[in-house]
Amino acid sequence: MTKGFLSFVLHAHLPYVRHPEHDDFLEERWFYEAITETYVPLLTMMDGLERDNVYFRLTMSLTPPLLSMMTDPLLQDRYVRHIKRLVELAEKEVWRTGSQPEFNRTAHMYLNKFRHARRMFEEKYGRNLINGFKHFQDIASLEIITCGATHGFLPLLRVSPEAVKGQIEMAVRHYTDHFGRAPRGIWLPECGYFPGLDDVLARYGIKFFFVDSHAIIHADSRPKYGVYSPLYCPSGIAAFGRDYESSKQVWSAQEGYPGDGCYRDFYRDIGFDLDFEYIKPYIHRDGIRIMTGVKYHKITGKTSHKEPYDPHAAWEKTAEHAGNFVFNRVKQAEYLCNVMNRQPIIVAPYDAELYGHWWYEGIDWLNFVIRKMACDQDVVKLITPLEFLQIYPKNQMAYPSESSWGNKGYADVWCNQSNDWIYRHLHEAAWRITELARKFQNPDDNLRRTLNQMARELLLAQSSDWAFIMNSGTMVEYAVKRTKEHIFRFNKLYDDILNLRLDMNFVSELEWKDNIFPNIDYKIYG
């Protein structure tokens, strides 16, 4: 008997990084690594579940920047070049480790993985991974939701209501272009919510969104069922709260599964370990040592001593951890159903890139969890938020509290002494484009292109990734550079319009460099 529901939510996002002016750009590798280690393996997992007739339901956000990169011919070509080099490196590694059986089996694992990624990317999906995800949405196993247009942290953009509206409207339009219908749910960037934001979402047909636990617990009316049932905002949109217990088992560095000593160590990589001349063709062209994705050691313990990685032992550990996770969800659902007198929904949201990239074995773990949920018990059933709302259409009404899922639960990560300087520029830019959008209702082609490019530059500058990176202390120079570049470009275009001297060569260059949202319309700020 089903006593509760579990909703896995995977948030797939990367900042928009595309540099056609460079032949090899370091930060573009974030995207290539995610394809190889997360997106292709997730699709492979879902292929296997479909093949074996295993029931599953997942919710996944594919953010507009990620969708744009997935469909960009330049990045598709560069990924093929990247994965070909990885296959070549893995072939060399199989030969190099031939007399080291403790490493050779892992080298073979990488060779098979890279060949599979290349084959899936080129042959099965025609270089467009969206085709794969769309298939699983079409058969109702996957609910794909949207996000802010460029992952702007909305609570800090609300100084200009048009800035918030622009992030949502552009996201909905972009999703519709790719999937043929409007999105039914949204992942608010960084789970950043403020009361009243749901009114904007309702305007665009959004039915549900997610918040962190304390947004529900500290709602303006005490939630009868805690985070185990959604709240309806006064606008009619459902807010689902994150379950702390299931999140902790995966996220926690101290208590979570990914820290087990059997699992692969993320930081030991042959890009740093091997002789420079040997590894040189597979690192950055400027000779900068970087991670290649080929790693031969397991976590082992908290010291620097790392033992050889055993893929089979790690695989067995994922089965053990999956069994533990399912057992805990069964007990949790039984208890909650008893005290609530209705079936709870346990919402378990994670960054998609945790699986396969940061936690190498994470997708094997997820695969085991889904199969055990389908075959080993009947107490907890996988579900999407919309399906839950169909079962329980009546829910308590309240405003969740302002919140995020960042450190300390509010805006500290995105507004502190490392990054607060960006907001006066973002707010001024939002006011300026709103002014122009209202002024120019029927522009000629050159003015329209200039205004549309202004909208692109503002959206790219608003990405929460830049403030996050500045706060993290790593790759700060790149985040600062991107923010300043987009603001500079925006302001130059603005000045050109005011001074009646449009520089169409400059506009064309920006359309080539910053080509996200080909169907953008600056009137989203009107």
Total number of strands: 9
Strand content: 5-15%
Shape descriptor reads globular
* CATH architecture tag of the largest domain: Alpha-Beta Barrel
Structural class: alpha/beta
How many helices in DSSP terms? 19
Distance between the termini: 52 Å
Low-confidence stretches: none
- Average pLDDT confidence is 97
Give the radius of gyration. Answer: 24 Å
Q: Outline the biggest β-sheet.
A: 9 strands, mixed
Looking at the structure, the CATH topology of the largest domain is 7-stranded beta/alpha barrel
The CATH homologous superfamily of the largest domain is called: Glycoside hydrolase 38, N terminal domain
| Tally of discrete structural domains | 2
Structure, explained:
- It is built from 19 helices and nine strands.
- By secondary structure, it is of the alpha/beta class.
- It has two domains: 4-71 and 128-264 and 309-408, Glycoside hydrolase 38, N terminal domain (7-stranded beta/alpha barrel, Alpha-Beta Barrel), CATH 3.20.110.10; 415-525, Families 57/38 glycoside transferase, middle domain (immunoglobulin/albumin-binding domain-like), CATH 1.20.1430.10.
- Strands 1, 2, 3, 4, 5, 6, 7, 8 and 9 form a nine-stranded mixed β-sheet that branches.
- Helix 7 links the parallel strand 4 (185-187) and strand 5 (208-211).
- Helix 1 packs parallel to helix 13 (362-375), helix 16 (445-461) packs antiparallel against helix 18 and helix 17 (464-472) packs antiparallel against helix 18 (476-498).
- The radius of gyration is 24 Å and the shape is globular.
